[in-house]
């Protein structure tokens, strides 16, 4: 599996566990507010697989978990094999995904390789191509969410509350989703790298903490397990 970045220790990326985060390049989405734009457009570094293996071997027993993030990890052809190797070292595994490839998630669920999943739900279904790029389909994401629900897996759904996301749109999203065990509203932060055409959008003032708390209260009518 191609790894382009690593956070060696994190207390916030895997709920309840101390983990490292591995970032893979490549994504089938093109969200204007993406915080890992270099992993989509390049240039990106490719870390030596031997270095990754040795790091994970040395940290086994010191770190609880490994988070595989991106980019979009389900595009990696050897994701399952890599996960099996990491699992064999005794780690718990978390997958961050945009949910666009339910067929891959279905296979991972069969193998019981990941202990936790985080799925991004980015926009109202009708707006997915506009926000995420041509070809992006909300129905694929919703299929992924339903697979996770039916499997009994531990997971959360996340939405970044970017400045252009209106309250009525967020309510639509909350209603489109089935009730999930954890629905996280993430604060928007201006990305360091973005396309010049998106400058006005990324520089728009973000929601305040108070505004997001108010949005969360509204969303609770449809997603009772909303978190900030």
CATH superfamily: Aldolase class I
Question: What's the average pLDDT?
Answer: 96
CATH architecture verdict:
Alpha-Beta Barrel
Would you list the SSEs in sequence order as H and E?
EEHHEHEHEHHEHEHHE
Q: Which CATH class applies here? A: Alpha Beta
| Beta strand count | 8
- Low-pLDDT runs: none
CATH topology: TIM Barrel
Quick one: overall form?
A: globular
For the largest beta sheet, what order do the strands appear in spatially?
1-2-3-4-5-6-7-8
Q: What class would the helix/strand composition place it in?
A: alpha/beta
Q: Using only CA atoms, what is the Rg? A: 17 Å
Our count of domains comes out at 1
The DSSP helix count reads 9
Estimated share of beta-strand residues: 15-25%
Q: Helix content range of the residues, please? A: 25-40%
Give the biggest beta sheet: 8 strands, mixed
Q: CA-to-CA gap between the ends?
A: 32 Å
Key descriptive features of the protein:
about 35% helix, 8 strands, eight-stranded mixed sheet, single chain, 9 helices, alpha/beta, about 230 residues, TIM Barrel
Question: How does this model look, in words?
Answer:
35% of the residues lie in helices and 18% in strands. By secondary structure, it is α/β, with parallel strands linked by helices. It has one domain: Alpha-Beta Barrel (TIM Barrel), CATH 3.20.20.70. The longest helix is centred in the middle third of the chain and has 14 residues, at 138-151.
């Amino acid at each position: 599996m191609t790894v382009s970045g690593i956070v060696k220790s994190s207390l916030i990326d895997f709920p309840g566990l101390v983990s490292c985060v591995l970032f893979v390049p490549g994504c089938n989405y093109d969200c204007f507010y993406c915080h890992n734009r270099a992993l989509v457009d390049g240039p990106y570094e490719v870390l030596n697989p031997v270095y990754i293996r040795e790091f994970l071997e040395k940290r086994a027993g010191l770190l609880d978990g490994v988070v595989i993030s991106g980019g979009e990890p389900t595009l990696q052809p050897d994701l399952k094999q890599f996960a099996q190797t990491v699992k064999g070292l005794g780690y718990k595994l978390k997958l961050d995904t945009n949910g666009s490839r339910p067929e891959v998630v279905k296979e991972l669920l069969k193998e019981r390789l990941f202990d936790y999943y985080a799925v991004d739900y980015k926009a109202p279904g009708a707006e997915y191509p506009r926000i995420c790029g041509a070809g992006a389909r909300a129905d694929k994401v919703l299929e992924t969410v339903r697979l996770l629900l039916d499997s009994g897996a531990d997971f959360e759904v996340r939405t970044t509350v970017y400045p252009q996301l209106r309250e009525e749109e967020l309510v639509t999203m909350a209603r489109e989703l089935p009730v999930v065990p954890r629905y996280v509203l993430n604060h928007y932060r201006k990305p360091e790298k973005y396309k010049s055409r998106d400058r006005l959008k990324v520089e728009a003032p973000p929601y305040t903490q108070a505004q997001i708390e108010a949005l969360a209260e509204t969303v609770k009518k449809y997603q009772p397990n909303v978190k900030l």
